[in-house]
């Protein structure tokens, strides 16, 4: 199971606000039943099979273009652990257990 942090940034829009684009991305995520996701203040975290998560990341990259943006910069960080099950909750619980 992979965890990906993704940030999709539309460039050259009429406003500095990006919340409309984030909301449009999350509408796409709601349709992806096999992908778990979490909105954070600076990005979105996806969890699922690596191939599926990358497929969904590509869809998210396309969203600002569909909303009228002419340029999009997308960054991703991938945590793909193979020695044991990797989940968003598990990563957070691991840190909390050490506090």
TrEMBL record:
Enumerate the spans annotated as Thiamine-binding protein domain.
Answer: 5-96
- Which region ranges are annotated with the description Disordered? 76-99
Gene Ontology cellular component terms for the protein in this record: cytosol
Q: Tell me the domain of life.
A: Bacteria
Q: From start to end residue, where is composition biased (Basic and acidic residues)?
A: 77-86
Q: Which Gene3D superfamilies match?
A: 3.30.70.930
Q: What family name appears in the similarity comment?
A: Belongs to the UPF0045 family.
Instruction: Tell me the NCBIfam families matching this sequence.
Output: MTH1187 family thiamine-binding protein
Record's protein name: Thiamine-binding protein domain-containing protein
């Amino acid at each position: 199971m992979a965890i990906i942090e993704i940030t999709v940034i539309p460039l050259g829009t009429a406003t500095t606000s990006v919340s409309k684009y984030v909301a449009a991305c999350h509408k796409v995520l709601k349709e992806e039943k096999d992908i778990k996701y979490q909105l954070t203040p600076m990005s979105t975290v996806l969890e699922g099979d690596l191939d599926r998560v990358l497929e969904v990341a590509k869809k998210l990259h396309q969203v600002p273009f569909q909303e009228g943006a002419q340029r999009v910069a997308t960054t991703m960080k991938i945590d793909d652990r193979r020695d044991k099950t990797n989940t968003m909750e598990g990563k957070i619980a691991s840190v909390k257990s050490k506090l």
